[in-house]
Amino acid sequence: MASIDEIRKARLEKLEKLRARGIDPFPAATGQTISNSEAINRFTELEDGEPVVLAGRILSTRAQGKVIFLDFDDGTGRFQALLKKGDPTPESDFGLLEECFDTGDFIELTGSLFLTKREEKSILVEGLKMLSKSLLPLPEKWHGLQDTEERFRKRYLDILSNPETKALFIKKAKFWDVTRNFLKREGFLEVETPTLEVTTGGAEARPFITHHNDFDMDVYLRISIGELWQKRLMAAGFPKTFEIGRAYRNEGSSPEHLQEFTNMEFYWGYADYKMGMELVKKLYREIAREVFGTTKFTTRGHYFDLDDEWNEIDYAEEIKRQTGIDVISASEDEMKSKLDELSVKYEGINKERLTDSLWKHCRKNISGPAFLINHPTLVGPLAKLNPGGKTVQMFQPIIAGSEVGRGYSELNDPIDQKERFEAQQRLIDAGDEEAMMPDWEFVEMLEYGMPPTCGFGFGERFFAFLVDKPLRETQLFPLMRPKQD
Predict the structure, then answer these.
(1) Dihedral sign from CA coordinates of 201, 203, 206, 212
(2) Cα angle 201, 396, 453; round to 5
């Protein structure tokens, strides 16, 4: 079996042979008149009619006597071509097929559509043109790329050789289309907010830092989809806004977390978290039906049906039920002791992180669908307080043992917001790199006034859960370390 270097050398020789014949192996234009999918769908109309011009990448070739069959794909569909050796003449460009064309090449084919004896839709080729000469071979037909890192690094080959991978990303595009269409139908205005920020508001995460040369200052890549900006728009008089975009968090990777990902956030003036829960339930069910054709899923060993009743789970009560710890009143030492007893790894630098670690241990036992509510104030610094002041009006959809979204009755009391930002600043000063950066100009906006508002966000992690794959698997081009020679 020839090595990659030997194959490349042989193809380079074919490339030069084409050029020696005056044939450009990489022309800028093609005369394609219809796509492969059109040829398939309109076949009866076009059969035995005027010549058509198709194009695509050669996926396979097979010779049978004086006949050569080609399978080629233009991205819209796969089609078959039949060529007769020596037709029109052995000396023509057509005659270079066996000599210079290879699997992987992009070609243009002119001819008439017909049905073979096996009733396969085909084109009888009368003219052939090289569109792009490939120098490296495609993955082996039946096995494709097997190494996971190689699949991510050469995603273009993974998609080309694996129909399931291609279908996954078509489905993901529909996932966001359904989300966008749903929100627009509900009266939300799509907006764009900054991705470079002076402070990273709207979430608790370690940001990426970069330098703005013109202003000569450090700025941050956003960690939320414009939460504090969209709330400014509530104050500006837009009652409903949303944005779908990229967020960046300089944190560790896991099957559920990556440093760069797509999220959606909406903000709904004159609404509270209970109204938001009903809208989110409706949105999630529509995504399931429109994208997947079902509301029933099995993910990470959990079965759930989004059409079922969504239970409401009290944050502190659920942790107490599972562990015996009341996170509202327990001391840090009590929480650490319980985490050690449960063999849960944690970074216990403050009560907020310890509380979060206990919850993450408990959530894995919940299949959903459910809404997690009544979070401790410490873990919801942007949410309105519930009566009593110890919990906030926050909600998170839960499926398959994890949260797949987060929403609040947004805090619009500037005095309360200032105090909570000050509490977050104390966490930062104590070394918590994930605490929320205060945004004092946002507090100033609240002093001008913001209506009661429900905000909610979810990301592509929800999609990853519905297809039961690690988040990295559902990204077209996940970040990779540079390849070492």
Answers:
(1) negative
(2) 55
At 462-482, the pLDDT tens digits run 999 999 999 999 999 998 888
Which of 458, 449, 454, 456 is closest to 268 using CA atoms? 454
Q: Sorting pLDDT into bands at 50, 70 and 90, what band is 79?
A: very high
pLDDT digits (tens, 9 = 90+) for 365-387: 999 999 999 998 888 878 899 99
Q: In sequence order, what are the residues at sequence separation of 6 or more whose Cβ sits closer than 8 angstroms to the Cβ of residue 350?
A: 332, 427, 430, 432
Residues 407 and 399 sit within 8 Å (Cβ to Cβ): no
371-429 residue pLDDT tens: 999 998 888 878 899 998 889 999 999 999 999 999 999 999 999 999 988 988 888 88
Handedness of CA 133, 137, 143, 148 (dihedral sign): negative
Task: Confirm or reject CATH 3.30.470.10 for domain 159-310+368-474, answering yes or no.
Answer: no
DSSP string, 423-469: HHHHHHHTT-TTSPPP-HHHHHHHHH----EEEEEEEHHHHHHHTT-
Rounded Cα distance between 250 and 473, Å, is 19
If one counts every other C-beta atom within 10 angstroms of the C-beta of residue 279, the result is: 19
Architecture of domain 4-138: Beta Barrel (2.40)
Query: For the chain, how many residues are written?
Result: 485
Interacting residues of 183 by C-beta distance below 8 A, sequence separation 6+:
190, 242, 264, 266, 283
Q: Write down the H helix ranges in 91-213.
A: 97-100, 148-153, 155-161, 163-185
Q: What pLDDT was estimated at residue 93?
A: 58
Mean pLDDT within 79-104 = 74
Q: How far apart are CA 55 and CA 105, in angstroms?
A: 11
Where exactly are the structural domains of the chain?
4-138, 159-310+368-474
Sheet holding 217-221, edge to edge: 196-197, 217-221, 209-212
d(CA 58, CA 107): 7
Query: DSSP characters for 276-313?
Result: HHHHHHHHHHHHIIIIIS-SEEEETTEEEETTS--EEE
| Whole-structure pTM value | 0.90
Tokens 């992987």 -> residue: 104
Segment holding 483, helix H or strand E? none
For 235, phi then psi, to 5°, come to -65, -30
Question: Can you tell me the distance from the alpha carbon of 292 to that of 167, in angstroms, rounded to the nearest whole number?
Answer: 12
